[in-house]
Amino acid sequence: SEWDHIAKAVLDYAGGAILLVLLSPLMALIALAIKLESPGPVLYRQLRHGYNQRVISILKFRTMTVTEDASSFRQASRNDARVTRVGRALRRASLDELPQLINVIRGEMSLVGPRPHPLKLNSEFEKRVQKYANRHKVMPGITGLAQINGCRGGTETDEKMKERISHDLDYIKNWSILLDIQILMLTIFSVIRSDNAY
């Protein structure tokens, strides 16, 4: 409904701004920990496809050595030696995604929606996974239905991606502002459990 769409816009902009302010002390501590552990920038940018396949530059806390966070993309694996100690803790709790609140305020992302994937993976799975492109019909999110159902971390196989796509399509089909709120609440518990991320 029109009300749901208005409510989602308010939730994204107001909620994103409030969360950014409330979490700024934690984000400052994370930035300090990253700088103390290894040389290089605190944040890094990565190009991903957003709404209607528009390319956006998402922000993340750097979790790897600076040479590995460069433009040449290779997906992290479990016990990946490239990931720093601070980075591993951030990934486990999904705290490396917090800077994407800025993307939300910019109108490039939503708090809830299908996760945007790196361009290389996006191109590969679009060819190999049926209906993959349908996930670009809505704004990408920091969290989503797939994530609260355990689909976090790597997407190395078609089976893993198909599972994610199934959840993403279910989200698009059944979307409502109440579903977004439910996903946000369940995300908190998922982060506390630190399921499947590395």
List the helices and strands and how they pair.
Elements: H1 2-37, E1 43-49, E2 55-61, H2 85-92, H3 100-105, E3 110-112, H4 119-128, E4 141-143, H5 145-148, H6 158-174, H7 177-193
Parallel strand pairs: 3-4
Antiparallel strand pairs: 1-2
Helix pairs in contact: 1-2
Order of strands, widest sheet: 1-2
- Measure the end-to-end span: 38 Å
General form = globular
The arrangement of helices and strands along the chain is HEEHHEHEHHH
Estimate the helix proportion, in percent: 40-55%
Secondary-structure class: mainly alpha
Oligomer: single chain
Radius of gyration, whole Å: 16 Å
SS elements, strand count: 4
Query: In percent terms, what proportion of residues is strand?
Result: 5-15%
Question: What is the overall pLDDT average?
Answer: 87
Q: Low-confidence runs (pLDDT<50, min 5 residues)?
A: none
Could you explain how this protein is built, in words?
The protein is mostly helical. It has one domain. It has seven helices and four strands. The chain has a two-stranded antiparallel sheet with strand order 1-2. Strand 3, helix 4 and strand 4 form a beta-alpha-beta unit. Helix 1 runs antiparallel to helix 2. It starts with a helix and ends in a 5-residue tail after the last helix.
